[in-house]
Amino acid sequence: MKSGFVAIFGKPNAGKSTLLNALLGEKLAIVSHKVQTTRHRIKGILTEKGYQIVFSDTPGIIEPRYKLHEKMMQTVKTALEDADVVLLLMDANEEVGEIDALFLSLQIKVPAILVINKTDRIKAEKLQELNKFFQNKPYCTRVVSISALKKKNIKGLLDAVLSLLPEGQPFFDGEQLTDLPVKFFVGEMIREKIFFLYEEEIPYHTTVLVQEFKEKETLTKIRAEIIVQRETQKGIILGEGGSMIKRLGTDARKDIEAFLQRKVFLELFVKVRPKWRDNELYLKEYGY
Ligand SMILES: Nc1nc2c(ncn2[C@@H]2O[C@H](COP(=O)(O)OP(=O)(O)O)[C@@H](O)[C@H]2O)c(=O)[nH]1
Ligand SMILES: [Mg+2]
Fold first, then answer.
1. Nearest-angstrom CA–CA distance, 4 and 20
2. 36 Cα to the center of ligand 2, angstroms
């Protein structure tokens, strides 16, 4: 039996969350085309005959600008310390010099697979070049190329992980898909819709707190608060005559119903908490 922790690292938008979902064949992590969508370490557990792999999706590595960012980078550090194997994920179209410096700076002490993602978007020669560039790097045990979006070579990546995974007994029950509560994923699904529906800075000033999660006989009743930093942002979230929040509620509810496989009654409220991203107490309350 093999078992271990595998952490996925990379710059914002490399495709870390898409990869976690592809590896698990299930949508656990929220994905958007905007950077810094992921704020937590999300564990996804893959149990098959002969092995259990506990994958961690992490926030993209950035220079912290707020306390929220510092917490996000602390999460990256913890995941790095726990890992038995590391996946260094890069977008094939990114600048290699920058990537090289970043991965070198992580000072990884365990086997690492350099994963070239978004190969659906590059030519074969470019891929060869990348392979050659990374092969002899000190942090790189193996190079694997994939497309997380098109689910190309996910099996090849799994085989590479398994070859580096230590022997050991499973850490979690075989049925368990993640270590986080359902409530967390409900909040994330609402947050994902905010990334899709609202422009520019709004998603970055926002967080979601699920206040009530009650399983009733015929449906699940959920009450969630959307936290923003300013009155004007509250107005934007609500939209004219409440039109935007209504759309947000409908879109989020559909996803949550599919996830929970039952009917949902979703109530959303907007609260203004000035500078919550820099306030220790608020950050703690909101799960960061
Ligand atoms: N073309 C292409 N796009 C991808 C691939 N993997 C991820 N993406 C897209 O890249 C964007 C960022 O993905 P996400 O998983 O949120 O990246 P993260 O910030 O590293 O977690 C999304 O728009 C994804 O659909 C891939 O293999 N090919
Ligand atoms: Mg992500």
1. 15
2. 7
- Greatest C-alpha distance within the chain: 59
Ligand nearest to the CA of 33: 1
- The CA angle 169-172-176, to the nearest 5 degrees, is 140
Q: Which atom of ligand 1 is nearest to the CA of 152?
A: 27
**Helix locations, the chain, DSSP H:** 16-24, 67-82, 96-105, 124-135, 154-164, 182-197, 231-238, 243-260, 280-285
Say how far apart CA 284 and CA 288 lie, in whole Å.
5
Contact between residue 20 and residue 42 where contact means Cβ atoms under 8 Å apart: yes
Structure confidence by residue, pLDDT tens digits, 112-142: 999 999 999 999 999 999 999 999 999 999 9
Give φ, ψ of 142 to 5 degrees: -155, 150
**Cα dihedral 98/104/105/106 (nearest 10):** 120
Give the number of residues written for the chain. Answer: 288
